[in-house]
Amino acid sequence: MKPPKPALSLVPPPGTKPADLLIVGCGNLLRGDDAVGPLLVRHLIDHDLPSWVRLADGGTAGMDVAFSMRGVKKLIIVDACQSGDDPGAIFKVPGEVVEDLPPVTGLNMHSFRWDNALAFGRWLLKDEYPQEVVVYLIEAANLEYGETLSPQVEKGMDRLIEMIVAEIEELKDVQ
């Protein structure tokens, strides 16, 4: 009998030690290509990942992302973006680049995004902030409500899954 698939909650189960690697998929499942982050972590469940890797669906809950990273060694965030590049293009951005954004005026719980969570998390968690943060962004083609992933973004997601699995394999050697 196969073990049950892990939950994708941002909150780790009580009494568990922080994951060495936390992969958070961010985005809105109802807005076409914006769903790429949460869908990617759902696809990663089907891979035989080591026990020190935790997957989480961050959805659109930026504040929850801030608290989920406490004590994690490495954090990977995956989300969609709109930069004007070709749909499905993958960008790898160091966390320090996006967490050091200018102050957001009028910030409230409904507009608190994962990039705000990184800056807030560094301030709040101090020594418990991840040693390494990497953000993968996939260029979106369509962010309309009710749409599915575009073919270009689905291909980009599949490429990124391969990249992340390869990265986990490399990390196995240093665990």
Short structural summary:
By secondary structure, this protein is an alpha/beta fold.
Characterize the structure shown.
The chain has 175 residues and is α/β, with parallel strands linked by helices. It has a domain at 21-142: Rossmann fold. 31% of the residues lie in helices and 19% in strands. It has 5 helices and 5 strands. Helix 1 (36-44) crosses helix 5 and helix 2 runs parallel beside helix 4. The longest helix has 22 residues, at 151-172. The chain starts with 20 loop residues before the first strand and ends with a helix.
Helices and strands in order, then pairings?
Elements: E1 21-26, H1 36-44, E2 53-59, H2 62-68, E3 74-81, E4 90-94, H3 95-99, H4 114-125, E5 132-139, H5 151-172
Parallel strand pairs: 1-2, 1-3, 3-5
Antiparallel strand pairs: 4-5
